[in-house]
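ok trying again, last paste got cut off:
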Amino acid sequence: MLSQQPGHIHDFTSVVKSLPDKTGVYQFYDESGKVIYVGKAKSIRKRVASYFTPNDKRSGKQSVMVKRIADINTIVVESELDALLLENNLIKKYQPRYNVMLKDDKTFPWICIKNEPFPRIFPTRNVIRDGSKYFGPYASVKMMNSLLELVRQIFQYRTCRLQLTHKNIEAGKFKVCLEYHIGNCKGPCEGYQSLEDYNNSLRQIEEIIKGNLRSVTRQLKNLMLHYSKIFDYENAQAVKEKIELLENYQSKSTVVNPSIDNVDVYTVLTDEEYGYINFLKVVNGAIIQSQTLELNKKLDESDNELLELGIGELRPRFQSDSKEIIVPFTPEFEIPGVKFITPKRGDKKKLLELSERNAKYYRLERKKQKELIDPQRHIQRLLKKMQSDLNLPELPVHIECFDNSNTLGKDPVAAMVVFKNAKPSKNEYRHYNIKTVDQPDDYASMEEVVYRRYKRLLSEEQPLPQLIVIDGGKGQLSSAAKALEKLNLFGKISLIGIAKRLEEIYYAGDSIPLYLDKKSETLKVIQHIRNEAHRFGITHHRKRREKTSLTSELSGIKGIGTKTAEKLLKHFKSVKRLKEADLKSLEEVAGPSKASILKKYFKK
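nice, full thing came through this time. structure:
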């Protein structure tokens, strides 16, 4: 193992050249001697050199970190797996500022088989290195309790805290308790059960906890046949009931082909701030362990880096010895004796999809928790993110979005929706019928609607939005900008357009669009606003089109003019209600003569 002591190094060119071209771990220190980043590499020299090579694709956070590096320390190890595990341990120890941090503040439960004569079996959250056996950890307490309940139903073992040494039992210090009398314990405290028999049951319990139900079932079936051959049908029936309990438990747990044995499954899901690694442990087609990690991203880490970190953390934690790992893509490191598989179809692909769903549910749950705990903080964080992503001078607390609708140039309408604190404010939504544009012209329609909206807000001295979103590309955006210029508002309110084809963001007067990350919360809010404006506009347009169609139908009746038709529809709302109306109701709206014409028409 090679190590350089931290000091104050300024010329990194010579330092990088002297670094080992070996597999290992590197640590970056700042001027105060504090570890700010820990990384692993197949070649330490090449990986560290990449930090000091000009790179336009490097993120802003990475550039800031590189500027703070004052010294480098390296540790050479035998294999990539050793490097992965060492990196994980060093991150936990130093908690460097620029490393992905594990959001894992829980103490997970384990199943303990105590190191003592006639060992007890019980759940615990404290792992004590006293020779006892621990199985887990279990992310789900329910899963662990179900397993303990199954074991309790099949086998009799003690739950008392008595010191069952051979000397104490021989001296007759203990008496059997209620557990013995109700059949939950065989009474080792009074010598009714031998240590050998107790340990035989214990070995089967361990196999069940490990998920090896098949081998235990096979042993029990052999025992049942043995009892049958010697005509001990009572014990044979008791063993049969145990087998049925095991098979029932396995049928509930099996998610895929039972032949899939001792396999680990990992998936990775990421957004701008966090990565989520889901792990499933599968034995005989049954999931016996599951865990999802939340990783706080620091330097725009790739999915590959996050997956490697997740495997490095979870494999030792769950004491996995599986020789096969199912992953969404092949990691860039190797584990000796372990095969990575990326299935394209079949049962293993279903397992991968199940793991991915678990990661998605976990992410959704975490986001809901954060919003419930502190909704105002969540909103402020989201608005600041939008301000940063869109280069806005103010927080976009109040956003308005415009959308046009027409059918082959007919019945042109527009919709305006309002979002406050990134949420719809539906009572402030507005519909607009286009008044000044006769021909189909989306650009002129947009200019009219934007002008009308903000002229009214100014005249009524109403608060203006911090951001206006236009559903459309450069043409519609330019029209909206003209309307704001007429009102002397251009430049005072931020204005953007979102084009549907590639979801690119345009700014007025700038032909180069902004492309936001498809996973970006900012883009999702803008898409939500745009979709809401489109939905609201389409609903109004559909109603207007139906009204126009119904008016045309009524005005086509001889003796009924357009004004009468509109008057009737305004009162009765639909032709159906009009048809069902009695003569008196029709006379009240259209008069006696026209009411008579309508009744005769509808009778035909």
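cool. Confidence is low (pLDDT under 50) at residues 1-9. The longest helix spans residues 521-555.
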